[in-house]
Structures are given as structure tokens and as C-alpha cells.
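Practice problem 4.
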């Protein structure tokens, strides 16, 4: 059952919803692991107390729904997993945080989108129906980082189908949608959103320069060769970021869509001072353009919080929330 104490029948428009998202953090490596805990972290209730007290406005919850749904029609989502997600969402709502329920790591959708279209839509039908009576401070994100075979034409044909499925039970809930190539800023102009649906927030992700933000990342081939890369806030380095943010902002103005910078972060193997400089610059540039943002991520490899000591990494936290 939804947390009725926070039920809000009125739904803000997408720009008001963007403002409510404000400054957020991703609960990464948790519910988007194949099974929660496999990547070393679990979501705990106390984390939401810390997030709220630190001044964040929202949490994005990446969820690998497909790992908890049947392989054959009707592709039923496991009831115990729904209960776990309900618990996490309730913890966030109880602290006054806006929540993004994000469909994350459906990797088969990227390599074989047509083969998984029916299952993807069936899962969304269940998720949307399940949360239809939740407050307006719960937003849906259709698909994290479309890539590979989920190319521009494929995604632009699929996203209105997925949105239509959501709209069956949530006619005016705000929904977040991003472009292909891993939600790249450079692909924002290719994103085709239904003109008559104004409850949409467009999103992009930002990890550039990639050799800096992903240096030493164990899942990236060759990333150890990037170790020692710094980000020194030179004019050239700053201009590389502002140029891409200006591109997104121009598209947003032309299309009258609010923007969420849904992920940005620099991996923990990078130079700490450079990470702080980069994080602060990206966050402030997003805010200058009225982008909401969500840092990647809370307490794993990019983490702003140390789960072993239950303390914030103060330099990174101050870079995000001065």
C-alpha cells in the first residue's frame, strides 16, 4: 500500500517537479545489482536520515527490475522484490525526499531491443500500476542509458510505447526520459518526446573527460592507463564542460523541457583534489542552467558517503552542497 500520510493528489508540472528534485544523489550499486548486496552495499534506512540532514532534496533509485521478473509472459515481477522497493521508497518519502524510480541495467534491452520489447513494456505496466497511488514526489524514469542496439530510431519508437503504458495508470505523473549513447549530452537533440505530454523531464548523464572520471575503474578495459589524470579547472577544461551544458540548455529552451543531470561523478581512484574541483564545477554549472542533478553515487566506488564509518566524505559533500 502507498504511504497514505504523504499522498498528494495534485501533480506538479514538469518544471515544478524538476525544482523539487533539486540536488539529489543516486543510491547506486544496490538495487541495480543482479541481487541486492552482490556489489557490496545494501540500502539502509539510516542512509535516508543522513541524506536528508545533509541537505539533499531527492534520491534516484536505480533498480534492475528485469532481474526480478519472470522470463515468460506475463513476466510477473516478484512480490517480495516489490515489497523491498516499497520499503525503500517509503523510507525516502518519510524524510521528505523526492524519489526517482529508475529502470536500470536492462542489458538485454540494449543488445536485443526487439526481442525484449514485450517484456520491458509488461514490467513497466506492473510497476506503473503498483505505484499509481503514490504521491507526486515519486517520479518514473523509463530506461537508464539506452545504448548499443537501442539506437536513436529504436529508442524513439520504443519510448512513446513505454510512456503510453505508464499513462494507462499514471496519466499525469512526471516521467524522466533521456537520449541514447548512455544518455549522452551530445545526443540530446535526437530525443523525440511526445509534444502533447508536458509531464516529462529530459535527462542526460555526464562523465567527461572520461579518462579522468573513470581512471582505474575495474570494469573498464585499459582504465589503469588513465591513473594520474588530473582535472585542474583550466579554461580549456572548463570550456569543454560549459559547451556541452550550453548545448543541453539550448535544446531545453527550444523544446520547453526541464532538465535533470541524472548522473555525474568521478571514481575514487582519481586525485582527491581534482575530484572535488570537477564535482563542484559540474554541480554549479548545472545549477546555473536550472538543471536538477543527482550525483553518482552515495556509498560505493564514486561515493560521497563512507559506509564503513557512517560518515560523509566532507570534501565531496561540500563540493556538492557548499
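Answer key:
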Amino acid at each position: 500500500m502507498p504511504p497514505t500520510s504523504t499522498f498528494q493528489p495534485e501533480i506538479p508540472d514538469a518544471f515544478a517537479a524538476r525544482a523539487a528534485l533539486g540536488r539529489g544523489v543516486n543510491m547506486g550499486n544496490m538495487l541495480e545489482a543482479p541481487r541486492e548486496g552482490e556489489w557490496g552495499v545494501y540500502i539502509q534506512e539510516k542512509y535516508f536520515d543522513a541524506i536528508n540532514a545533509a541537505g539533499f532534496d531527492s534520491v534516484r533509485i536505480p533498480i534492475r527490475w528485469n532481474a526480478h521478473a519472470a522470463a515468460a509472459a506475463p513476466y510477473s515481477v516478484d512480490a517480495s522484490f516489490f515489497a523491498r522497493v516499497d520499503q525503500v521508497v517509503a523510507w525516502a518519502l518519510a524524510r521528505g525526499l523526492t524519489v526517482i524510480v529508475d529502470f536500470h541495467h536492462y542489458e538485454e534491452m540494449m543488445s536485443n531491443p526487439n526481442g525484449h520489447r514485450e517484456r520491458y513494456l509488461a514490467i513497466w505496466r506492473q510497476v506503473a500500476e503498483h505505484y499509481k497511488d503514490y504521491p507526486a514526489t515519486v517520479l518514473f524514469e523509463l530506461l537508464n542509458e539506452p545504448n548499443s542496439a537501442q539506437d536513436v530510431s529504436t529508442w524513439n519508437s520504443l519510448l512513446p510505447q513505454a510512456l503510453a503504458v505508464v499513462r494507462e495508470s499514471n496519466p499525469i505523473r512526471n516521467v524522466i526520459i533521456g537520449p541514447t549513447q548512455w544518455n549522452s549530452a551530445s545526443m540530446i537533440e535526437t530525443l523525440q518526446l511526445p509534444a502533447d505530454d508536458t509531464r516529462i523531464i529530459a535527462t542526460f548523464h555526464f562523465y567527461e573527460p572520461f579518462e579522468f572520471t573513470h581512471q582505474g575503474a575495474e570494469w573498464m578495459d585499459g582504465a589503469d592507463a588513465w591513473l594520474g589524470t588530473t582535472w585542474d579547472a583550466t579554461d580549456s577544461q572548463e570550456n569543454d564542460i560549459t559547451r556541452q551544458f550550453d548545448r543541453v540548455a539550448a535544446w531545453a529552451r527550444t523544446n520547453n523541457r526541464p532538465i535533470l543531470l541524472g548522473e555525474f561523478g568521478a571514481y575514487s581512484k582519481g586525485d582527491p583534489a581534482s575530484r572535488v574541483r570537477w564535482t563542484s564545477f559540474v554541480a554549479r554549472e548545472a545549477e546555473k542552467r536550472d538543471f536538477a542533478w543527482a550525483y553518482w553515487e552515495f556509498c560505493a566506488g564514486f561515493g560521497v558517503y563512507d559506509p564503513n564509518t557512517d560518515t560523509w566524505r566532507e570534501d565531496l559533500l561540500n563540493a556538492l552542497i557548499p
